[in-house]
From TrEMBL:
InterPro entries: BtrH_N, DUF4872. Pfam families: BtrH_N, DUF4872. This is BtrH N-terminal domain-containing protein. Residues 14-142 form the Butirosin biosynthesis protein H N-terminal domain. Residues 155-324 form the DUF4872 domain.
Length: 329
């Protein structure tokens, strides 16, 4: 059996920040999950729908692994990423890291993991691996998936080899802290303003505050958009609140990040952003509840109310990000 010594196997609420937390704690850096998420400029929004999709998708964060790259760049971490089409080489890459007493991050399709409670294909799932034996891989996943968990080596190989939307080619990665890392407080403003600028000026109308407004207009049609509203609308609400988002489509995490930052920086713009994201988080939870209720009851009025909430959220988050974008002035 191979097992990295001294690994803190705490699970968090979101998969990528959970894995980052494991890798960084092993390097001696212990940051809260909101701080990991915020320093990685992780907040975003996407409304996605197309003819080949069964139901629209609402996303509240940047693409998988962008958060990791952002965090590594901001904190001056050495991020080593390995990808390959060869399952044999992919396993050798992981085994070499673990043999050198280093936990390793993996991006894979959660559908194939035996402990996973919800069997849905998602190629952007991230876990930390800290050991293995003849039959099982030992991983750290989110709190809701069990934290320190195990899955068979066969299932892990299938998960890593899976292809599809957001999947990577057997991606594995490690992080190394530099000898002279930048101070935490010096990285807060660049991380927040980069996130704000992307949110305020999205390249297409499906993203950022424009995407939230678009979702507000389209959500009114969701009962007609599906043949199974009792399944699809509550599922959409569940993804907003509980599927690794930390609640309120990642707005709870960003609210708490901004709250931590107000203890480190004295800025009226920062306090305004924190106050507005505190309001936004509550409204996202309200929107999710209305969407779920519409699916369960078939009441279109619930979707009309959700539409109003989402349009208010577009305005509210735009105002929050406009305030936060001025942090660098």
């Amino acid at each position: 059996m191979i097992s990295v010594k001294g690994v803190d196997t705490r699970g968090m609420q979101h998969c990528e920040t959970t894995a980052l937390g494991v890798l960084l704690r092993h390097q001696g850096i212990d940051l809260s999950e909101p701080m990991l998420f915020g320093l990685g400029s992780g907040l975003s929004f996407i409304y996605w729908d197309s003819k080949n999709m069964g139901f629209p998708f609402l996303g509240g964060r940047v693409k998988p692994f962008v958060l990791t790259r952002n965090l590594a760049a901001g904190l001056g971490l050495d991020l080593q990423v390995q990808e390959t089409t060869s399952p044999r080489r992919a396993w050798q890459n992981v085994a070499a890291s673990l043999g050198a007493d280093r936990p390793v991050g993996l991006q894979l399709d959660s559908y194939h993991l035996e402990y996973f409670s919800s069997k849905v294909h998602f190629g952007g799932h991230v876990v930390a691996m800290y050991g293995y034996d003849d039959q099982y891989a030992h991983l750290v996943d989110t709190d809701q998936q069990g934290g320190a968990v195990s899955t068979s080596l066969t299932s892990l190989a299938r998960a890593r080899a899976a292809r599809g939307p957001m999947a990577a080619k057997h991606r594995s990665f490690t992080l190394t802290v530099s000898r002279n890392p930048p101070s935490l407080s010096s990285r807060i403003v660049p991380a927040i303003t980069a996130c704000a600028e992307a949110f305020l000026d999205p390249p297409i109308a499906n993203l950022g505050h424009r995407g939230i407004e678009k979702a507000g207009k389209r959500v009114r049609t969701w009962l007609q958009r599906t043949d199974a509203p009792q399944r699809d609308l509550p599922q959409a609400a569940l993804l907003m609140e509980k599927a690794g988002t930390g609640g309120a489509l990642f707005r709870n995490l960003y609210r708490d990040f901004l709250g931590e930052c107000t203890q480190l920086l004295d800025s009226s713009h920062l306090r305004t952003g924190h106050r507005l994201y505190t309001e936004a988080a509550t409204l996202w939870t309200e929107a999710a509840a209305l969407i779920a209720k519409a699916g369960e009851s078939g009441d279109a009025q619930c979707l009309a109310q959700a539409s109003t909430v989402l349009c208010e959220l577009s305005r509210l988050e735009r105002a929050a990000m406009e305030a936060l974008s001025r942090l660098g002035e």
